[in-house]
Structures are given as structure tokens and as C-alpha cells.
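User: Please fill in residues for this 205-position structure.
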């Protein structure tokens, strides 16, 4: 689990004992903080909101949405018509994705509360089966909302850039290279990902 500073530090200390680059990086930038999100519909919807927009824009949309639907549930979201969601800042596509997600939960096709009992691969498949939630979205949810310790978001741009910096690579690594490099970090790839985001932010890569 990567849900507390202590569990993250313990995982990264173990990795530092195996990987001199991680040891050097921890000495340079320190330990990352946990990124904990509340499991459930609201966090999954927030991941959809954050797709292909800036952090600032996503935060503004989330704030307006909570003013329109608080608490944010599948029912309260579905009660908002298209005009209300556009006023909040949703695109046509994100309205569609949000409605599909809310309806899947409301009609019993998807149960976020059941995900903690599933293994990583099965839980990821359950999320990816939802329209608008791809592999990256599922990995972020499993890492932040469920605290899964060996999730590796290899397609994340910031993580790729940080790995390039960490391993002194000439080019930004693709997913296959990312997966290959991270094999040595099992079963703590989630903690490694948190460190990579920390490196990206701290080093302004």
C-alpha cells in the first residue's frame, strides 16, 4: 500500500538498496507525499474531468460541479442536464463519459465498492471497460484511491520524463521500455511512480 509517508518511505528505501539511481534521487529530492483520493464515483469522474486539460482548469470544473451537485453521486450527476454540465465546463464528450459511468453504477453494471476485493489486473479490467476510462485512468485510480503498491502508470508523460532523467536516457522511454526498466522495482512500482512525479515537479523537468 502507498497510502502513508511511512509505507512509501519503506518501499523506496528497499528500492534504494537495489537501485543506485533511486538512492541518489532520494538524496537529491527527498520522499514524495502520498496522493490519496476517496474511492468511488466522484474520484472516477474527477479523473475524466482531468483528461486533456490543465490542472488549473480541471480544479475549476470540479469546483463548479460541486456547487451544482453536492454531494456528488451518480444520481446527483444524472439530475444535471446538458446545459448545466456545459455551464460547469464539461465538453460534449465528457458529458457522455460521465453519464455512462453514472448509469453503469446506478444500473449495477459496475460497482466501485467491489474493486478493493479484486486483484490488480481484474480491477483494472473492470475500470477500463467503462467508456472514457482508459488504462492510465484506471492505473491512477488504483494507485491513488485504492493505494495499490505495484501499479505502474507507464504511459504517464511526467513519469516517462522523470525516468528518462533518472536513468540518463537519450530519449523519453516508451511503454515497453518503461515496463522493462520497472521490472526491477516490483512489488513497489507504485512508490516508484510517486517518486517519479515528485522528481518531475521538484526538478521542473
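Assistant: Residues filled in for all 205 positions:
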Amino acid at each position: 500500500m502507498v497510502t502513508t509517508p511511512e509505507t512509501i518511505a519503506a518501499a523506496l528505501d528497499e528500492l534504494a538498496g537495489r537501485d543506485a539511481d533511486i538512492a541518489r534521487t532520494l538524496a537529491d529530492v527527498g520522499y514524495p507525499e502520498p496522493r490519496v483520493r476517496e474511492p468511488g464515483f466522484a474520484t472516477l469522474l474527477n479523473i475524466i474531468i482531468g483528461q486533456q486539460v490543465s490542472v488549473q482548469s480541471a480544479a475549476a470544473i470540479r469546483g463548479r460541479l460541486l456547487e451544482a451537485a453536492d454531494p456528488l453521486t451518480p444520481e446527483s450527476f444524472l439530475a444535471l442536464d446538458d446545459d448545466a454540465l456545459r455551464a460547469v465546463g464539461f465538453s460534449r464528450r465528457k458529458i457522455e463519459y460521465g453519464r455512462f459511468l453514472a448509469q453503469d453504477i446506478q444500473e449495477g453494471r459496475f460497482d466501485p465498492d467491489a474493486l478493493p476485493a479484486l486483484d490488480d489486473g481484474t480491477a483494472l479490467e473492470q475500470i477500463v471497460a467503462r467508456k472514457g476510462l482508459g488504462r492510465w485512468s484506471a492505473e491512477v485510480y488504483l494507485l491513488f484511491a485504492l493505494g495499490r503498491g505495484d501499479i505502474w502508470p507507464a504511459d504517464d508523460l511526467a513519469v516517462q520524463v522523470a525516468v528518462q532523467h533518472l536513468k540518463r536516457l537519450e530519449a523519453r522511454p516508451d511503454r515497453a521500455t518503461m515496463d522493462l526498466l520497472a521490472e526491477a522495482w516490483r512489488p513497489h512500482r507504485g512508490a516508484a511512480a510517486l517518486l517519479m512525479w515528485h522528481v518531475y515537479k521538484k526538478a521542473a523537468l
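For context: The mean pLDDT is 96.
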